[in-house]
Design brief:
CATH architecture of the largest domain: 4-Layer Sandwich
Shape: globular
Order of helices and strands: EHHEHEEEEEEHEEEEEEHEHHEHHHH
Strand content: 15-25%
Radius of gyration: 24 Å
CATH topology of the largest domain: Purple Acid Phosphatase, chain A, domain 2
CATH class of the largest domain: Alpha Beta
Number of helices: 11
């Protein structure tokens, strides 16, 4: 069907004025950026809407965090909405587990072009341009922060051939996809077939193409912990006359968590060579104009004596000072968040039958954490907690957890188990 081409911006999990977790000690100028990071990222979302002349903005839940009990987040949200309304740009927003509708203060004024979509409404929000209808946006699904999932069915069909969009505060993760074609899946909750599912709440940016529509989760515009490493931003969606959608990543995060692996060289690596490897690893990272601060987690592996000495405070300080000195990364301020070891806890290898058991354990653990950004989600999905009352509570905590720290703790615990076996034998 022929439609008027249009474009919109898709963002999620703004959590305005929510503070980053576990940053540690940084200089005062950097601290100011860290404390304002989520607000700066949202300002960049608004600027992107204006720069790309979008027809509307979609916010897929968790625009602020009701647990923060402050007004800065909600007020910043209202100011952003007002700027868009002054340029006749509509906003469609659904609540998420961190900002249920009950936490949206009645005393804050929102422009008429802001559409708060409450799941269960029988009619979609229509987005039109002066010459033709464009899109029908459905609020499809809601979930609570600590309680059971609550679902609502939307009725009707997308009228006048509009492009149908389902807006839902649901992470595009493996449990969501596993339920997709079941009676509990999102398509079962809405009558018309969606052209685009605007999802949100996942730890990583993700797109899936299915017969039932294009699914996309842009992840948060600003990462809040080391678990949300890598570039963060929002998505520009351009829909052509034939209904095909082109997705473009737009970076927004002023503070970027990075996980950098340094490996190779074995015993031949000295301190100077280690510094060179670490500086080269930083230089190889793709940079964006929005990057103001990098918080780096170093994972050291197979680097012989120099790598092992990174566990010594004085050696680590000297090495990191040399790494950070005179870096040619433009205006980016680089700071080490943590140093860990890829083979942490495995220095004293057990022998005999215990060695075989340890090898099996290490292999299984490595497989579980092969993709760090997905590891904890996949482990939870395979656990006995899946589908129970604790799943939602634990899933809400995952962005605050450090997957490398958990993997290292598991390795150390495994070594303790097999050491005990050896003593028992």
């Amino acid at each position: 069907m022929h439609r008027e081409p249009f474009r919109f911006l898709h963002a999620a999990a703004l959590r305005l004025d929510h503070q980053l977790c576990g940053v540690g000690s940084v200089p005062e100028k950097v601290r100011e950026i860290v404390e304002e990071a989520s607000l700066i990222a949202f300002e960049r979302v608004i600027e992107a809407c204006l720069e790309h002349d979008v027809d509307f903005l979609l916010l897929a839940g968790d625009s602020f965090d009701a647990g923060d009990a402050g007004l800065r987040g909600p007020m910043a949200l209202a100011r952003g909405f007002q700027r868009l309304a002054e340029h006749e740009i509509a906003t469609c927003v659904v609540a998420g587990p961190h900002d249920p509708w009950s936490s949206w203060l009645s005393g804050i004024h929102y422009p008429e072009l802001v559409h708060r979509l409450r799941p269960g409404a029988n009619t979609p929000t229509m987005i039109d341009c002066p010459t033709s209808p464009l899109a029908a946006v459905y609020g499809v699904y809601s979930r609570t922060r600590h309680d059971e999932v609550k679902t609502h069915r939307a009725e009707g069909v997308a009228p006048d051939g509009r492009y149908a969009i389902g807006l839902a505060s649901v992470a595009l993760d493996e449990p969501t996809l596993a339920r997709w074609d079941t009676p509990d899946g999102l398509p079962a909750l809405i009558e018309p077939t969606m052209n685009y599912w605007a999802l949100g709440g996942g730890v990583a940016r993700r797109t899936v193409h299915l017969n039932s529509g294009l699914l996309h989760d842009p992840a948060a515009p600003q990462g809040f912990s080391a678990a949300e490493a890598g570039p963060r931003g929002c998505t520009l969606v351009e829909v052509d006359a034939g209904g095909a959608a082109n997705l473009t990543f737009l970076p927004t995060a002023p503070v970027r968590w990075e996980r950098v692996y340094v490996n190779g060289g074995g015993e031949s690596i000295d301190q100077q060579s280690l510094v060179s490897l670490m500086r080269s690893a930083l230089a190889a990272i793709e940079r964006f104009a929005t990057d103001d601060v990098w918080l780096v987690d170093w994972i050291i592996g197979n680097l012989g004596t120099a790598g092992r000495r990174m566990a010594e405070p004085e050696f680590r300080r000297e090495t990191l000072d040399a790494v950070h000195r005179d870096l040619e990364l433009g205006d980016i301020s680089v700071h080490t968040h943590r140093v860990s070891f890829a083979n942490e806890g495995l220095a004293s290898e057990p022998e005999g039958q215990t060695r075989g058991l340890m090898a099996q354990f290490a292999t299984g653990l490595a497989a579980k954490f092969a993709v760090p950004d997905r590891a904890l989600h996949d482990i939870l999905a395979d656990s006995e907690l899946r589908g129970g009352p604790w799943e939602g509570r634990i899933r809400d905590l995952l962005p605050e957890l450090d997957v490398q720290e958990i993997a290292g703790a598991a390795q150390r615990e495994g070594c303790t188990w097999f050491a005990d076996l050896k003593e028992a034998a």
